[in-house]
Amino acid sequence: MKIEDFRRRARRRLPRMVFDYLEGGAAGERGLSRNREAFSKHLFEARRLTDVSHRDASASLFGKRYPLPLAIAPTGINGVLRPGGDLMLARAAARHGIPFCLSTASTSTIEEVATASDGEKWFQLYVLHREQGMLFVKRALDAGYTTLILTVDVAVNGKRERDMRSGFKVPFRLSPRIALDAALHPLWSASQIRHGLPELANFATAQATDASSQAALMNRQMDASFDWAAFAQLRNAWPHKLILKGLNSLAEVGLAERAGADAVILSNHGGRQLEDVAAPIDTLRAVAGKCKMPLLLDSGIRSGADVVKGMAAGAQLCLLGRATLYGLAADGEAGVCDVIKMIASEIDTTLALTGYPRVSEIGPEALLAAH
Fold this sequence. Notes:
By secondary structure, the chain is an alpha/beta fold. Helices cover about 45% and strands about 10% of the residues. The strands form 3 sheets. Strands 4-5-6-7-8-9 form a 6-stranded parallel β-sheet. Strands 1-2 form a two-stranded antiparallel sheet. Strands 3-10 form a two-stranded parallel ribbon. β5, α6 (about 130-140) and β6 form a beta-alpha-beta unit.
């Protein structure tokens, strides 16, 4: 199988508006296409007559070794794909020994995910209001999350035309068109009705009941005043590893390093925010080696070959977003595990065919110059 098989199954099972939410990008979706095209243009320069009879795909970050160079990226509203989607993703990640990143916009709470999985859990923070953000940070700390990710590329919402056309919102607002769409996908509809329609769970607890916050998060109405001074306060409040997600230039990576970030996720939000920015794999090749802190890669990764290219370009880990969501939508937790296994197998094959027995050995010499 390949990721396109999971994508097709997800598309058949989901109503159009839900699949478009999963699949869509900003504006005309040039950024979405650019992310994929960028991986295609980076080609391997394979070594030959090297012993690749035993291969090791493990990778290290912050002194810890993982069996695969992967983490599951923070993605929001996963319960609309499958009820309990965040829990399924977290359990699948734990099964494969890789970190799971929970989004602020999750449909299971920080505490529910902490209880459901004994794997390593990271928490991704959106800041709508400073006080509320600090409440989420405290909850994540109390629940045992090991790493905090601050997403910084959402000062306002990107222009997501598919969602605007479909009227996609959480909670759902029924219209004749949406009702017909749901009726044409009875398995999805029955599952949602049986478990209750999803909501942004972290805003529906005793500590945070403000319904307007759910609407603000859906529309990405963040605290647009959040700056490096505010980041310094967050840095002081979080005693563990702190990662910035959404940077995409050497200058910004340098600022993050000087401000005390422990790592950066090079990302353009999967092409969902600003359309005309560089693909992160391109930025990674330009930035790697010019800073001391670890660089992680997100956006556009769909195969094991993409992962190996990311590692060769200088990433410490690669984050899976849509790839694992296709598996979740297609077949729940088992589908997520199948996607991870498939990508792990592709990593192994790519290592063998490029002449590198260990992913930790691969570097920029394994890639031809970009063209």
